[in-house]
Amino acid sequence: MRPPDPCRVACALALALAWLAPAAAAQEPAPGWAARYPPPAASGGSVLERWPAPHFALQSGESSHPAVAPSDLAVRLQTRLQLDAPGRYRFALDVQGGSATLSVREPGGGAGAEVIAPPPNGSAGGGDWLELKGPEALLTLEYQRHGNAPTRLRVLWEMAPGETAGFLLEPIPARFTRVPDAGAGAPAAGDAGRRGRVLLGELGCVNCHAPGKNAPAAVSARPGPYLRDVARRADGAWLQRYIAGPQELVPAAAMPDLFGDSPAELEDARAVAAYLQEQAFLGAPRPYAAPEATPASLVFGRQLYHEAGCVACHGPLQAPAVAYGDEALPAELPQPAVARPFGDLRGKWRGGELAEYLRNPLAVDPSGRMPACNLAENEAGWIAAYLLAQWGAAAAPPGPRPDRALLERGREQFAARGCADCHQLGSDSAEASRLQAPPLAALRSGGCLDGAPGAPRYALSEQDRAALRRGIGEANAALGHPAPPDAARRSLAALRCDACHARDGAGGLDPSLRPYFRATVGADIGDEGRIPPDLSGAGFKLSSSWLRTVLTGSGRARPHMAARMPQFGAPAVEALVAQLAQADGTAPDSDLEAPAAAAELVAAGRQLAGVRGFDCTSCHAFRDFHSSGAPAMEHFTTRLRYEWWSLYVHDPARFKPGTRMPRYFEKGGSVLTRVLGGDAHAQADALWAYFAQGESMAPPEGAGAGGNFLLRPQDRPLVLRTFLREAGTRAVAVAFPGGWNFAFDAQRCRLAYAWRGDFLDASSSWTNRGGSFAQPAGTLVWRAPDIAYVLMRLGGAPEPAEAASQVSSRRFRGYSLDAAGVPTFQLSFQAYGTEVLASERFLPARNGFQHCVRLEGLPPETRVLPDPGLPDVRITETPDSRDAVELLWSVTP
Amino acid sequence: MERDAVIPAARLREVPSRIPQSWKRCATASLALLLGAGGARAQDEFMGVRYEKKATRAETEAAALSGARPVTPQWGEWHMLAPFPYAGHGRDDLKTPQPPEAELVRHRAGGPGPDLQAEYAGKNGTTARWRPLDRIEGKVLDLSVHGRRSLNENAVCYLHGSVEVAESTILPLSLGADDGLRLWVNGRLLIDDDVPQSLDPEKYQLKVPLSPGVNHILAKVANGGGGWNFSLRVTMHLDARFESWLQSRLDRDFPTPEGRHYRILTVPLPDDLVLEVGGVDLLPDGRPIVCTRRGELWIVHDAYAEPPLDARLTLFASGLHEPLGLVVRQEGGRTAVYCAQRPELTRLLDTDGDDRADVYECFCDAWGISGNYHEFAYGPKFDSEGNAWITLNVGFDGMTPLSEAPYRGWCVKITPAGDMIPVCSGLRSPNGLGFLPDGSAFFLDNQGDWVGTNKLAQLIPGSWQGNPASLRWREGWKKGDPAPERTDAAVWFPYKKMGQSPADFLLDDTGGRFGPFTGQVFTGDMTLCTVMRVFLESVDGTWQGACFPFLENFESGPNRLAFAADGSMFVGMTDRGWGSTGAKRYGLQRVVYTGVTPFEVLEMRVVPDGFQLEFTQDLDSAAAADLASYRMLSYTYAYHSDYGSPEIDSAEQKITKAAVTGPRGVHLTIESLKPGFVHELHLPGVKRADGAPLLHPVAYYTLQKIPGGASGR
Predict the structure, then answer these.
(1) What angle do CA A756, A760, A762 make, to 5 degrees?
(2) pLDDT in tens, B159-215
(3) Are the CB atoms for A843 and A865 separated by under 8 Å?
(4) Given an 8 Å threshold on Cβ–Cβ distance, is A765 in contact with B578?
(5) Domain map of chain B by residue range?
(6) 3-state secondary structure string, B359-408?
(7) What is the pLDDT of residues B366-410, one digit of tens each?
(8) Of A520, A765, A813, the CB nearest to B322
(9) Chain B: closest CA distance from residue A514 (Å)
(10) Which among A296, A720, A814 is the nearest to B295, CB-wise?
């Protein structure tokens, strides 16, 4: 196979530098708000930064910025609000633990108003309707925290429902805001400071330059990969070249060049390589199993590499037309600015080791900067085989063990050069560093930052150096208080979430990579089924438990998306669960109170979701019923926050521009007018109540086989013999029009229970081989006593043995239907040596149902003893026959 | 004005959506009225489609369908590529691509498709090559094509076919697989379902977009163990009466060899009526009454026209639990319908004469039912003393038979007083029973554990039929006791050669109105959609005999058979849960004898030195006396707990003499008859006096006893 083209290496180098540089200055002002903390909040004077949105939720002791004191936090925010259409708008503040005012002003001196949040405990304080002409309004927000209390801030707006573009009261999304021109440079500098702090961690600066005790709130340190097995993975020659000059081989390497060009320096590098190589000899021997490079595995590896998401960081290795063998796709290799181009990796990997690494990179590098992509063993093998074939040469087998003197020199250099500051051999080792680098607080100039002779050399651009200087200042000014919104943004940058996901108008997949992102398995929901989702407002949208599942449990809402959500390891991402929520103005694991799942509401929701309603399953999966690949209905309410969903469902495209999810509600009304009076809000709540049934929800009409087998009585009762839960293998289920259902157990000859709502799904008997147990589809409202009545001697004492024999001698005789189709059940039993015939029927009645029993052939001198638990039993002696009696009880559950 | 009399083709496509409801309610509505075109129903024109006989059946059918369907897909050849390894269920291994998936790009619309000459490394060191298949649309494909079980189990295969359309269209497909399935259309993955399952031809409903020109379909089917099947059907809606009409026209003009003697007519069903037949009988007035696996009983009106385009069905009863048999009885001037449903034998009465049952009497519920899916109850069939016989299936836990409740795996009889008498044990999956005129009772069992192949055996009171699960309910029997003596099969049905799922036992008591087979027995086969014929004889007190192919091409799996008074046979069908080769999942058809005698082996009797054959028509005696006209094989089956058995100890049987014993008789002398073996006789050279060959030149005689001589075990 051909070696990488030198031009491509150079090109990749340029690209890597491009990553290290800030994003090219966009023509369009950045979305967001300019935030200014007034002095003396921060020691270095007022801090300015760009906020995507004026939303946060903070606990006591937390701040919005590491260099700003949490107590009495005050901030002034300004934005140029973009109005899609002229019309009547209303603004509101959601403030807790503080106070805020918002002023809205139109540039031309038109409408203007001040909105003041209500005093404590008030949630959304709303202002009056304003007539805004657009296309812009200037918003100024003053926020003041009350002491160190938990606090929350959100700014909401609404457009009158009568307007064509009207929308409900919602937190203002970032995409409608622009940082004001005045002071635009200053917030950008704030962004640069954060970027500098990210670099301080990513380049390992703080591993050598001890940060102050407060700095960890502003900088996240990143340990380097474990090195014990590095010589198993790479061959000695590559290792030596890499140590001597990492960026020459891997242009985006975070590792600095620690060695000069003199023969002595190069010998030191050789010694370190030898020392590391020796480690591979010390461990238990393992075979170097290489994945098989068959023509097919190369094809699968090529496709998988290009579609699993690898290309977002490492870049594509082949044009889409080649990667997928599809001439309809572009034939040019895109050259996007990716963060981690491979560079020259000839000799870096042995196949088997690469496959193992791809399966679980966190075992080698627990920082999660190379995440696990949920690859199966064979998949990892394919990718490894494909990549090795691209690079041309796999690592050579280990050479002879180096001599002792070189090893000793290597060990010495490993400590002296500070390698051990970043790298340990394994999680169990404690290699000491003897490098004495000045602490972070003492850094001024010179050293690595300025490329001083003898200092470690990094590939830094001028912007990087500026950002790092600013970052050092901020880190040193940090107050040690956690700042979740800041930490969220740092984590998203450090883990390069933004390589795939856009958030608040920044980041996202490079457009040239889009052809590589695709759906599998017939999913057809447009870009939502193939492009990683926009994370704007993700903390507002997603439940914390679902975020946790996605980040640390490989949870996927769209399993048909070919790109796989990488797993970075819990240490790297578990804090993000709370931080994302807080950055979006919601407290983790909190939500508005959802509507209670009343049976009627659930039933209405189910009707709405069905094929004659909004036909949700035409796109959304439901259990095994795959539709177009949209997320599964039964997981909606565990994934989504009710507050977000209840806004979203009214206007999906507003929250997800480009979504194929249709809009069913407009101006408070619904396109379906016959359910719940066509009230959009009531229908939305009904849907939520239905979805909240989760895994146990009854299928919506039309969702696969299950949907077609729900039996409904029309004008007559339905009688169905089936295996039925809690009524046995000889059950008779009866449904009356109007929603009363009964289970008769023909084995024990008794009414077993009654339920309301839907009857049952006959698929248990009517599909495949049948013979499984049906369950009541509605709500169980009454359980019958074991035996409703026995006969006893007039004036005598109860006779348990006789009663037991009356029960055990019961025999089912069948049932008859009257002209209206109502069944009367016949049974018989032995009482005092006589056969008694019983006819039983149950009928819906006002507020409940009636159970009527007629007994014939009563033994003389006996009477009926009903179960004392039965409500309100009436016993009628039948006048024309001394041996017959009728019982009736009415049940009102 | 012929033009006015013709309903445009487009009209036909609108009709089905409107007709069924009105059809159900409106008993008297005739089609002509519904169409609003009086006189449109000319002899060879129906629902606006003209029937015109062309050179071949396929051409004629295509021409008629092109008038009825918006698109006519042209299927190319199908090929199969196997075997590749599969790790088995629950290992998520179906998604592991095998080499053909590396070429999916060739499957783009208009693309070349797979390289059918390519060879791949297959499972266990085999070489996988594409092999051509017959037409597969509308059929169930058996993918167990390899000689070795290890290549048929834990294996995956690929199936490729192309379909050509003239313009962009959506093709509705219905697919099923046993077990896991992935399906690509034009290289795009549409189904990915790695589950163990039996074949349900309607499991996957797809609407497949096709581009003008060639479109490629690639299926990947996995098999863990057991059966390995695939089915694909085009589900473009056609009106059932149109189909019935077209079929009758095609059968008239292009009859199969069997069709010259027996015509199959289809009762058209409304779209929303799922007639999965569990039982058929005839009411005293001749109307068929049918019970379905969904627990409904339907009366069929106007079922005797040829074809029965005006047939309609009315509901007699509903709500039963999978009734698998139905008998109409006259009792003291009233009509009672007996039905065995899962929990009980039920007697249904219509006391007010409105053609709807109003009494559902529990006639007997003395057998147990634990709730296992496989606990079916078949029957009843009434003996001459008025006892209702019922056979009770064992339950299954995977492949293990269970008899968790009393008398599972037994035959029982219910006296006229409603009391239950256990008859005999050891049954497995006994879907069919009946009596010979002398009162001897028989049942049919399905291949499986302890049943080497499907069989017919006599129900002798107190006997044991070989499946041990039910022994626990035998009086005096304890676990660990030696198995009792077991009853031999009277007739084995060699697997696949003679069906895969025998169903029902129908004695020909038509006195010749159904052809020359009076006194013989018919049984359906639910998998291969055939009806088979059985000749039985008693040899020194042991029943044994031969089975023969009789009639194929039913549209679903025949499950119940009944003779009408006119000597025609109603065949009720279903294949739910197990699948059939038929294009439909259920239905009702009627077989009418044309009066043209088929040239068949009528009887095959064993004699001490061989077999005495009797034919339905006079023989060409020279051919009949020629030894080269015959060939005989023998083999038997293992009795073991494995599912089924291969044919074992196979050998050629030497025929030493063929002596013509009359115009229709031949005596074959066999060198050494082998008791306990199937004697499979081929008669390729036997000719009728006029030179015509046999309609079915094969017979399978199960020899247990040689007259006056040895017995099988």
Answers:
(1) 170
(2) 999 999 888 777 878 899 999 999 998 888 888 888 888 888 878 877 777 888 999
(3) no
(4) no
(5) 2-68, 74-234, 255-481+490-593, 601-703
(6) EEEEEECCCCCCCCCCCCEEEEEECCCCCEEEEECCEEECCEEECCCCCC
(7) 999 999 999 999 999 999 999 999 999 999 987 788 999 999 999
(8) A765
(9) 18
(10) A720
Kindly report the nearest CA distance between residue B392 and chain A, in angstroms: 14
Interface test with B, best of A725, A768, A824 (most B CBs within 10 A): A768
Residue A302's pLDDT band, with cuts at 50, 70 and 90, is: very high
Tell me the domains of chain A and their CATH numbers: 33-183 (2.60.120.1560), 230-244+260-450 (no CATH), 599-706 (1.10.760.10), 707-783 (no CATH), 789-891 (no CATH)
Q: B36: pLDDT confidence band, cut at 50, 70 and 90?
A: very low
Nearest chain B residue (CA) to A321:
B105
Q: Which helix (H) or strand (E) holds A811?
A: strand A811-817
State how far the Cα of B408 lies from the Cα of B470, in Å rounded to an integer: 6
Q: Using a CB-CB distance cutoff of 8 angstroms, which residues of chain B are in contact with residue A729?
A: 342-343, 369-371
Q: How far is CA B388 from the centre of its chain?
A: 25
Predicted confidence (pLDDT) at residue A11 exceeds the cutoff of 50: no
We find that the CATH architecture of domain B255-481+490-593 is 6 Propeller (2.120)
Q: For residue A561, list its beta bridge partners.
A: A519
Six token digits for residue A545 = 């438990």
Query: pTM of the full predicted structure?
Result: 0.63
Average pLDDT value over all residues in chain B: 90
How many Å apart are CA B564 and CA B570, to the nearest integer? 7
ipTM of the complex: 0.85
Q: Does domain B601-703 have CATH number 2.40.340.10?
A: no
Closest CA to A97 of A502, A585, A445: A585
Contact A287, A54 (CB under 8 A): no
Token pair in block for residue B381: 């069939």
Strand order in the sheet with B521-525: B502-507, B521-525, B530-539, B542-551, B698-703, B677-682, B631-637, B647-653
Tell me which chain B residues have a C-beta less than 8 angstroms from the C-beta of A766: 274, 293-294
Averaged pLDDT, A107-131: 66
Q: Which two tokens stand for residue A355?
A: 């496959």
Higher pLDDT, A377 or B170: A377
pLDDT in tens, A611-621: 778 888 777 88
Is the Cβ–Cβ distance between A720 and A762 less than 8 Å? yes
Mean pLDDT of B687-699: 98
The CATH-assigned architecture of domain B74-234 is Sandwich (2.60)
* B359·A816 Cβ contact <8 A: yes
Asked if the Cβ–Cβ distance from B200 to A376 is below 8 Å, we say: no
Tell me how far apart the alpha carbons of residues A16 and A461 are, in angstroms, rounded to a whole number. Answer: 11
The whole-number pLDDT of residue A48 equals 77
